[in-house]
Structures are given as C-alpha cells and as structure tokens.
C-alpha cells in the first residue's frame, strides 16, 4: 500500500487526491492520509506530490514506519477528500522542513 509521510504536514498540496481512482485519501487539518484497505496500489499519486511525501510501504525508512499506523488510524476518523483545494499560503515554506511530525494536528 502507499503511505503519506512527514513532508505532507503543513504542505498539503492535495494534487494527490485528483489522480486517485478509488478516492482513498482522508483529510485532517494539516495532513492527508491514505486508507490502506482501500488503496489499490496503482502508484498514480506518488509522482503527483510536489512534496514527495507519498511512498510505497516497502520503500519507507525506519523513521518513516510510524506513518503506516498513522495513515491507517487517521483514515478511520478523518473525512474523505477527492477534490483538489488550495494549499496553505505558506506550504512552499514548509516543504522539506525537518521534524514536522510534532506539528501534526488531529
Ligand atoms: Fe490512490 Fe493509487 Fe495512490 Fe493508492 S496508490 S492512494 S489507489 S492513487
Ligand atoms: Fe500531501 Fe503531497 Fe497530497 S503534500 S496532500 S501528499 S500532494
């Protein structure tokens, strides 16, 4: 399955949701997640993310493993998103910034 990782936090460009054929993205205040049971592993979203935040689970680093559970858990409680919306005004400033996990809003 594919997983949204740290660099989406506070970037949330939402280009990913437009290409997903099964609409399996879910939206929180400043992060998106993929529902692991709904993702069909098509891979279309991965190259669309300007923040390179989407990875196949097999490609996650040890540090990124925490996002497997975060995607699964938050996809159960956040609302679905299937239409692209404007990114935060300061999204580009946050792209690539380290240590964003502590900034994740629920
Ligand atoms: Fe959707 Fe395909 Fe990305 Fe899975 S890999 S989230 S099905 S676009
Ligand atoms: Fe996040 Fe990238 Fe989608 S920043 S909202 S995973 S396009």
TrEMBL record:
<dbReference type="InterPro" id="IPR000813">
    <property type="entry name" value="7Fe_ferredoxin"/>
</dbReference>
<keyword id="KW-0411">Iron-sulfur</keyword>
<protein>
    <recommendedName>
        <fullName>Ferredoxin</fullName>
    </recommendedName>
</protein>
<dbReference type="Pfam" id="PF11953">
    <property type="entry name" value="DUF3470"/>
</dbReference>
<keyword id="KW-0249">Electron transport</keyword>
<dbReference type="InterPro" id="IPR050294">
    <property type="entry name" value="RnfB_subfamily"/>
</dbReference>
<comment type="function">
    <text>Ferredoxins are iron-sulfur proteins that transfer electrons in a wide variety of metabolic reactions.</text>
</comment>
<keyword id="KW-0479">Metal-binding</keyword>
<feature type="domain" description="4Fe-4S ferredoxin-type">
    <location>
        <begin position="1"/>
        <end position="29"/>
    </location>
</feature>
<dbReference type="Pfam" id="PF00037">
    <property type="entry name" value="Fer4"/>
</dbReference>
<feature type="region of interest" description="Disordered">
    <location>
        <begin position="87"/>
        <end position="106"/>
    </location>
</feature>
<keyword id="KW-0004">4Fe-4S</keyword>
<keyword id="KW-0003">3Fe-4S</keyword>
<dbReference type="InterPro" id="IPR022569">
    <property type="entry name" value="Fd_C"/>
</dbReference>
<keyword id="KW-0677">Repeat</keyword>
<feature type="domain" description="4Fe-4S ferredoxin-type">
    <location>
        <begin position="30"/>
        <end position="59"/>
    </location>
</feature>
<feature type="compositionally biased region" description="Basic and acidic residues">
    <location>
        <begin position="94"/>
        <end position="106"/>
    </location>
</feature>
<dbReference type="InterPro" id="IPR017896">
    <property type="entry name" value="4Fe4S_Fe-S-bd"/>
</dbReference>
<dbReference type="InterPro" id="IPR054829">
    <property type="entry name" value="FdxA"/>
</dbReference>
<keyword id="KW-0408">Iron</keyword>
<keyword id="KW-0813">Transport</keyword>
<dbReference type="InterPro" id="IPR017900">
    <property type="entry name" value="4Fe4S_Fe_S_CS"/>
</dbReference>
């Amino acid at each position: 399955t594919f997983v949204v990782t740290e660099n989406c936090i506070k970037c949330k460009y939402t280009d990913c949701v437009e290409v997903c054929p099964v609409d399996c993205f879910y939206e929180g205040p400043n992060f998106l997640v993929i529902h692991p049971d709904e993702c069909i592993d098509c891979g279309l979203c991965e190259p669309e993310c300007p923040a390179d935040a989407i990875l196949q689970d097999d490609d996650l680093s040890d540090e990124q493993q925490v996002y497997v559970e975060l995607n699964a858990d938050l996809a159960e409680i956040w609302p679905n998103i299937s239409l692209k919306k404007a990114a935060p005004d300061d999204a580009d400033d946050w792209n690539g910034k380290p240590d964003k996990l502590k900034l994740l809003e629920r």
